[in-house]
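Researcher: Predict the fold of 3-phosphoshikimate 1-carboxyvinyltransferase.
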Amino acid sequence: MIEITGKKKLTPFIYRPQGDKSISHRIAILGAISGQTVNISNFSGAKDCLTTLNSLRTIGASIENVGSDVSIKSWNPKGEEVHHIDCENSGTTARLLPSILGGLNVEAELTGDHSLRKRPMGRLIEPLKFVGARINDTNGKMPLKIQRDWKLTGKRVTLKIASAQLKSALLLAALFCEGSMEVIEPKETRDHTERMLVDFGVRVDKYHNKVTVKGKQQLRAPKTYYVTGDFSSAAYFIALGILSDKKIIDVKDVGLNPTRTGFLRITELMGAKISVHNKREVHGEPMGDLEIFPAKNNLRGIDIPEELVPNLIDELPLIAVIAAFSKGKTKVTAASELRVKESDRITSIITCLRKMGVDALELEDGFEITGGNPLHGSELFCSEDHRIIMSMTIAALLAEGKTKIIDSNWVSVSNSQFFNDIKKIAPESFSS
Ligand SMILES: O=C(O)C1=C[C@@H](OP(=O)(O)O)[C@@H](O)[C@H](O)C1
Ligand SMILES: C=C(OP(=O)(O)O)C(=O)O
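Model: Structure tokens for 3-phosphoshikimate 1-carboxyvinyltransferase follow.
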């Protein structure tokens, strides 16, 4: 539980995000299956990424980690036994691991916590089976049973859902397949897997929303890999910078992959001003520094362009908070994916915002917020969902009075340092 008193002094802060969560999952997995040593720096401290490291250890990968330095040493898939892997709260772990387990002929049973066991897995099993996977779900959900003897064949797979996890599962399967795998996605999603495969010496052909990877290409792992800063973790600090009265936030060394930065484009459309400095690229991933200017009085509601939704899917609850402080109406549609994340993020965020006095409406595939009402403190249950907890913390810091977040400990799923950093910006908002 954490208690936050709103409208206290905010002090200037330079935010350096931990390593990106999506990239950290991927470098651990690709590093492990490359069979070569990769020394990773700035690996994410998110509990989800530690879950991926532990899952890989369970099936024979030798991994050492000290803080954000992770060394993936070798891969030795263990013999005949059936491996039991707990993916805990991490959808990315659950969706990316099956392809490599099957590809390496490892028999396993994958399960997760109460939230992950509710999330849809049929969407993964169906295309994987289509290309030759031998895998069973439990009524479209976890536990998943990965059998041996997959015969993967490259095919044209047209995904029905815009999901980087599904696309990545097929691209990882491509590493073990005969022929060529062609994955077509309905809308552009984050492309970290494609960029990392290229960094591992794999030829990846991309044409609009189609990615093609020829099967059984050899992986040439980089000896070292630096993970760019997590844009999604930075978004909460950017939001605070936008919504404060004075300039308080600079962000350094943050990933700026355009398939992830929809949040910047949308907040700019809403009236925010953010400057990008020092743009550079590491392992094919763009990164840079950001300067955030206060814009509270210029913010106005907009309709979020549907084609951008996958590029800010994890930031949409935070957009709802920004919308609450903007003039007029903000409408999000084509975002029903939010209903199948760690919680139903449409219901979770709208329930919390309404408790604080916001004029907020659930839509089947999104939400509508009419900004301008003053927010008041409240006692909140954030559905044990890290993104809702972080979004509501930003709302609480700017609201009148006291807010209690009862399930604040779940923040560590993506950022265990979140409250330590926020306390540095708003020390008077926290009693201890
Ligand atoms: O590929 C990834 O690393 C992720 C993809 C997205 O999920 P979907 O693939 O379900 O859209 C995102 O919500 C999740 O936080 C991480
Ligand atoms: C949806 C998320 O992650 P995952 O799907 O990996 O659980 C997230 O981090 O917001």
